[in-house]
Amino acid sequence: MTLRHAILGLLSKWDATGYDIKKEFDDFMSIFWHSHLSQIYPELNKLETEELVTSRLIPQEGKPHKKVYSITDGGIEEITNWVGSPPEIPKIKDSFLMQVFFMDNISVDQVIFQLKYYQGVRQKRLDEMKLTVQEAWKSIKERQTMTPRLLMSSAVLRRGLEQEVQYIKWCEETIQLVEACKSLWDPDASLDSVLPFEEAKDLMEEYFNAAVGLEED
Amino acid sequence: MTLRHAILGLLSKWDATGYDIKKEFDDFMSIFWHSHLSQIYPELNKLETEELVTSRLIPQEGKPHKKVYSITDGGIEEITNWVGSPPEIPKIKDSFLMQVFFMDNISVDQVIFQLKYYQGVRQKRLDEMKLTVQEAWKSIKERQTMTPRLLMSSAVLRRGLEQEVQYIKWCEETIQLVEACKSLWDPDASLDSVLPFEEAKDLMEEYFNAAVGLEED
DNA sequence: AAATGCATGTAATTGGTTACATGATTTC
DNA sequence: GAAATCATGTAACCAATTACATGCATTT
Hints:
Two copies of one chain form a homodimer.
Chain A: H1 3-11, H2 18-26, H3 37-49, E1 53-58, E2 66-71, H4 73-83, H5 95-101, H6 108-143, H7 148-180, H8 197-209
Antiparallel strand pairs in A: 1-2
Helix pairs in contact in A: 2-3, 6-7, 7-8
The first copy, chain A, binds a DNA duplex through residues 1, 3, 17-19, 35-39, 41-42, 60, 62-67.
């Protein structure tokens, strides 16, 4: 039940229609949230009956009317309370990592293909994000003003960027590891002509230490 | 609809009860998946009617009976197909990042408190994970064998670890940035006695470059 | 005496996705 | 001529969470 906070948060800054909110979700906020119009519209109605927001109709020519929402004092109270409330531990669902986890069921070539493909998908996302940052950065430099608003949204943006950068790097390093350990997938890996354990161990240790110190014997 | 694949993936390795599956989700697999028993049991029944798994009852003394599930050939086909299918772009929901995004609504002190608190939560998770890695690592070294199964699950573990490490680092660096820009939250920030724009700009540039090159003019 | 673990499930509710419905304007 | 954008919504369906229900054994 955090959709309401996503909406109230946005409305604490600007008045907006359901359609505007959806665009904001898909654009900047996509780093941490998403939703469908068919969920946003009913939620806005609920918020209105709870008197956390108000709306007014704005007729337009050639286009459908707009229903512009504004936040109320009650809404402001709700959102500030929520922002200051204890953060929850995120419950992750990363279906790609799950695929990786079960990739001993497919061939090495398929494994490498999947990792490369996903790396590409992530790279595309990163490129798009970089454009967003550059635009945001440009407008900040033009306006010559820094505000808490700008600061905190930049922090979120940076987090989004580095998340992509890191996932891409992980793909790269994992591809390398899999390629080095290719022979483990051989059907007759029991004949230990393939990859001696010690070698695999060293490769794995290097792979782990590239990201994080294991700090044990 | 990926819960079915989480279950089938596990059953492609060992026979298990719904209760076992839940424990595996909460333990190792928590890096990328989670679910409730009340969702797992019905899903297992569905999988059985679709003949992707079979079950047998094992009576026990003093404890309730066990319903142990095994994967069928059809189930194996389903899971291998899925593992090799095009990965989907993850739709993130990170409510903490959303809180951060809207933290211009609360005081600097509260902002710093929230970031520190969350850093602690993540640190705890990291510590737990490190124990898991060390145990896994120990048993690998004892058995002196490396398999695709072990390799791919280690890759996922490393991803989980580095995710935590990085989030913690981000918290740290963001706390530093916020502390350096504290005066922006002053009510009379209009009097530009507070933090000159150029200084803020430099701090921000440093903050971004610590994680990712902006590579523009 | 109370809480946790083992082990199964159902029922009710909320959250989220996909499909349907409308209709003018602009871009490809 | 088709697709996308603007702008609102409803209905049906699927996924996920919370609550309810049972019951014995062990740990605190």
